[in-house]
Amino acid sequence: MSDTTITSPLSPAQIEHRIRELDGHIDQLLAFDVQTYSDNDKQTLVALQARIRDTLERCFGYNTPRYGHFQGAGSLFAYARRPGIFSNRSALEAQLREEVEENIKRSIGLLQSARASLLAELADAASQLGSAGDASSKSKPLSRRVFVVHGHDDGAREAVARFLEKIGFEPVILHEQANRGGTVIEKIEAHGDVYFAVVLLTPDDTGCVKGGEPEPRARQNVLLELGYFIGRLGRDKVCALKRGEVNIPSDFAGVVWEAMDAGGSWKQALGRELDAAGHAIDWNKVMRA
Fold this sequence. Notes:
By secondary structure, this protein is an alpha/beta fold. Helices cover about 50% and strands about 10% of the residues.
């Protein structure tokens, strides 16, 4: 770990990226099953500790006052070794899980505070950028139009479109737009004046390498449009939702996707991605949608 501290402020794009990293750690901690944890699994916590500490260092600089406020989030491991107090291993395991659970709760709280600190820093950066120019040069509000790329799963498409409408966005669905004699790619370009895109990866096709076993795949046009919008908008403004078992091509292995689960937690995930992209999100509407 470095002895240096951050001497220059993060750019808005870097701050947004760090916020997404913190969100990822929070999601991992929330999903951690304490009830099945045992002392044999300690390496799992050790690895997660290291990732959290690395993120905090890159957020605030190692050994800085702000880093000191949140560094406790990287302490997850429990040392339940007190000879003479417990006489059997089951009691020791119970104490271990209790300590790990408390450590995880503390870590989540600190990471959420770190996230709030970065959001405040992002707001300050945006305010400074806004005051730097003349009133005439102020940036336009972000477009609320969201392009929805889909395959043959009409249910998934409609669920996403209606959710976007309920939280104040305008879904753009290609087949609902006039052709005007253009090709598909021309239609995409004509209606691609959006700030964000949602790509639905659903198992509409099957395919495989020569001689292999067929696997469920997304439609080829969906993958083409996924690549198009990543290139046009940037990866941070594209959210891929995967429904069911879908083989992801190796070229897109680095693309982060969210599971479109039946319980609806994908809505919070999509809202979070829109929020990270700079949109104002009414979380009351997200929770009711």
